[in-house]
Every structure is written in structure tokens, then in C-alpha cells.
Amino acid sequence: MPLRLTVFFALIVAYAAAAAPVRAAGSYSGQAPVASQGDADRGPALAQAMIQVLTRLGGDERLADRGDVAREAAQASAYVLQYQYRREPGPDGTPALVLVADFDPAAIGGVLQRLGLSTAQTDRGAPSEARLWIGGIRSAEDYARVLRYLGSLDLVHQAGAIEARGDGVLMRVALTVGLPYFLSTVDTGALLTVVDGRPPVDGVDATLILGR
After folding, report:
1. pLDDT-based confidence at 45, cuts 50/70/90?
2. What is the mean predicted confidence (pLDDT) over 24-40?
3. What are the extents of the domains in the chain?
4. What is the pLDDT of residue 7?
5. What per-residue confidence (pLDDT) applies to 37?
6. pTM recorded for the entire structure
7. 212 vs 195: CA distance, rounded Å
8. Which is more confidently placed, 9 or 130?
9. Nearest-CA neighbor of 25 among 77, 83, 112, 74?
């Protein structure tokens, strides 16, 4: 095996062993990048985080483009229960500051009513556990992207790597929903896509590919 791939697999194994299992944010949690912890940056970031929550609960990404949603989100500081800052790798690999906010469920429910919306009632199925083969992973940063994405979903309770092989990683994922609903959700995003095909290991419930 080429040295480069050997080092990559060693990094994946070390990353998986050292990292705590991913625990996703709740349905009423949102996040947004900020330039600083100052008041001028906090307000717009809270609004962005609240819009993220509203679109998630409303089940429609197009809500982010509505003017009445933007006006409600401008009052996000009145609905937030708590917020914190954390550092995450940015697109260029350098640390980026992110605001993470938890909003009052009752207050958000009132906002949804004023907007003429209700929480999406799609049949999500019972909580389940699945073994996912995720291909297209060519570096430790790719693996970190997958972990960050899964950690942003309220559909995922925990996720962790089992093994790495070729350009893929086998992961065990604890879901708050049924696997079919989860797959229908991730397949609408740009990062992970559900694909057909036999993975290189047995006992896999679904195969996904990481987008570039």
C-alpha cells in the first residue's frame, strides 16, 4: 500500500479513536459564523441561526428567502435561551468562530403560528441504528466534514467510525428517526448523496458518497 494511503488510514483510525461520538444539535438549536464576539456581529448571527431553526422545523429551505421570516428573525435575541461560541475549521482549514444558539421552543412555536406554518409532520419512523458506508473520503479533513455535517442534524443522535478502507469509512449512526426518512433527507443536500452499489464490507444498511 502506498505510504500516503497508509498515513491517511492511520489518521482516520486515530481521529475515530480520539474523537467523542458526534451528538447532534437539537431541533431548536442553530449556528452561524461570526467575525467576533461583539454585539454588532452577534445580532445578525442570532438571526441567521433562528432562520436555520425555522426552516428546519417548517421543512422548507425556501423559508429563508421570505421577508416575514427575516423580520421575525430580526428579533432573535428575544427568543434565545442561551448561546455560546466555538472554534471550527473553516473552508480553508483555518479556525473559524461560530455562534451556537438554543431558542425557546414555545416562543419559536408562536413564531411559526404567526408565519402560518406548523412543524413538518412527515412520518419519520421510529428511532433506529444504521451502519453507513460513506465513500469519497480522501483525507482526514474529508472525514471531519462528514462528522460536522452529521453533528448538525437533529436526526442524528450519535455517529462514530468503525473502520476505514479504500476511499471510504464505515460508520455506526444512531438516528432519532427511521433510516428511510434519514436517507430521504440527506439525499436532498449537497454534501452526502445516497447511491446504489455494493460496499466493500458486509452488513451495510446504506451507501453514501461525499460531494466535493
Report:
1. very high
2. 82
3. 3-24+122-210, 29-103
4. 43
5. 95
6. 0.51
7. 15
8. 130
9. 83
User: 10 Å Cβ neighbour count for 188?
Assistant: 9
Query: DSSP assignment, residue 201?
Result: S
- Give the pLDDT mean for 36-55: 94
C-alpha cell at 209: 458518497
SS (H, E, C) 52-68: HHHHHHHCCHHHHHCHH
Please report the DSSP string for 95-163 in residue order.
Answer: EEEEEEEEE-HHHHHHHHHHTT---------S-EEEEEEEE---SHHHHHHHHHHHHT-TTEEEEEEEE
Question: What's the mean pLDDT when you consider all of the chain?
Answer: 81
In this predicted structure, what is the pLDDT of residue 12? 52
Amino acid at 72: E
Distance from the Cα of residue 149 to its chain's centroid: 4
Tell me how far apart the alpha carbons of residues 188 and 192 are, in angstroms, rounded to a whole number. Answer: 8
The reported pLDDT for the residue numbered 5 is 42
- Residue-wise over 71-102: b if at least 16 C-beta within 10 A, else e? ebbeebeebbeebeeeeeeeeeeeeebbbbbb
Strand partners, 170: 133, 163
- Are 16 and 161 a contacting pair, CB within 8 Å? yes
Q: Quote the cell numbers at residue 36.
A: 467576533
- Residue 193's DSSP bridge partners are 209
Helix (H, G, I), strand (E, B) or coil at 32: strand
Torsion-angle region of 37 (φ positive above 0: left; ψ -120 to 50: alpha; else: beta) = alpha
